[in-house]
Write a structure and sequence with these properties.
By secondary structure, the chain is mainly α. The chain contains 13 helices and no strands.
């Protein structure tokens, strides 16, 4: 056999090459399709969470004689009114506070300059700022294109958020309104021997998610009321809006929500007076201790009891996987997993080391 001679290729070789090419094309198409429907998948995931959260309220009304569709519509309307009221209170307060800060900014700078002169013996004179204030009209003219593109991007993002919100609302509405029928459709995918177990897991998910939302709402109401009273006594402007901000953010942002929520009222009080800011900070810290050790254990004991380390780890994992959405659904998901796993684990008593080591 010479070097120029070639052995015939086996019959499976050509078929294998074509199969490999076909598999690569199919894999690429599937990955491309998944990248295109990621937003829809996240919307469906959020819709499931919303449906689980609203199911207990709808079930309660249905048990009182309401038609399920009517009860679902009523719960959704109440939820929408609460959300709109939140933004209706917060947005004007933020605008007013921002306007007040902008108007008083020169006086704040003068106070800071005087404090630096007194404390650090720094001689800061007006000559350091010669040249006057910048010409904002010229800046806007120079960067008009960037501003316009930024507004266009903001408008596109806002439109996308509205579409996503409507998608979530539509899916979650039908999941709740057609809850029993939807569950039957899902259960049909499992053999009869597994259907009862899947139904139990479904009920645990609804119970834990609904319990999580209800407990957060109760704690948010307590936090809002306490903060509002404190801010009114300290005489901080926009007390109601700031109190609602503290109540919502501290309860629905896992792990670090209390710290993020405290920033805004402390800053608002600081622009009034550093002493007021200190009092606001003291009140918020004191209330957080009362909530952590008295209110939260009592309220969440029957709804969603998670160890703080588990809650923190779940929040970090949720943020890493799904971003802000993961942070929202991380805690109820962890509670569901904990409840389901605990149903399969057999708890045994732990032996006493002292008794084991004691002489007979």
């Amino acid at each position: 056999m010479t070097d120029m001679e070639r052995l015939p290729l086996p019959g499976w070789y050509r078929r294998g090459v074509w199969y490999a090419i076909f598999a690569l094309l199919v894999t690429g198409a599937v990955l491309w399709l998944l990248s295109r429907v990621t937003g829809l998948f996240l919307a469906l995931l959020l819709a499931v969470f919303v449906s689980f959260a609203l199911e207990p309220s709808v079930k309660y009304l249905a048990g009182r004689g309401w038609r399920r569709g009517t009860a679902t519509g009523f719960v959704f309307i109440v939820t929408a009114v609460v959300i709109v009221a939140f933004f209706a209170i917060m947005v004007p307060a933020i605008i007013d506070q921002g306007t007040a800060v902008a108007e008083d900014l020169p006086s704040y700078l003068d106070e800071v300059t005087a404090a630096l002169d007194d404390w650090l013996d720094l001689e800061i004179s007006d000559s350091m700022f010669e040249g006057g204030s910048p010409d904002f009209e010229k800046l806007l003219s120079d960067y008009g294109t960037d501003v316009a593109s930024g507004l266009l991007g903001f408008g596109s993002a806002l439109l996308g958020a509205v579409i996503t919100l409507l998608t979530v609302a539509l899916f979650s509405f039908y999941m709740v309104a057609e809850g029993p029928r939807f569950r039957r459709v899902v259960l049909r995918a499992f053999p009869p021997s597994r259907q009862r177990e899947m139904m139990r897991i479904w009920e645990i998910a609804v119970d834990k998610t609904g319990g999580y939302v209800n407990s957060r709402l109760l704690l948010a109401a307590a936090s809002t009321l306490t903060t509002w009273i404190a801010l009114r006594i300290i005489d901080v402007p926009n007390a109601l809006a700031l109190a609602i901000w503290v109540g919502v953010i501290s309860q629905f942002v896992p792990a670090v929500g209390a710290y993020i929520a405290a920033v805004l009222p402390v800053l608002a009080a600081f622009f009034e007076s550093p002493t007021k800011a200190l009092w606001v900070l003291i009140v918020l810290i004191a209330y957080q201790q009362v909530e952590n050790y008295l209110l939260a254990p009592r309220i969440t004991a029957r709804t969603m009891s998670l160890h703080p380390a588990v809650a923190f780890g779940s929040a970090i994992a949720g943020i890493g996987v799904l971003g802000a959405l993961g942070a929202v659904i991380a805690l109820p998901t962890a509670a569901i997993i904990q409840a389901v796993v605990s149903g399969y684990l057999e708890i045994h008593p732990v032996f006493d080391e002292e008794q084991e080591g004691a002489p007979a």
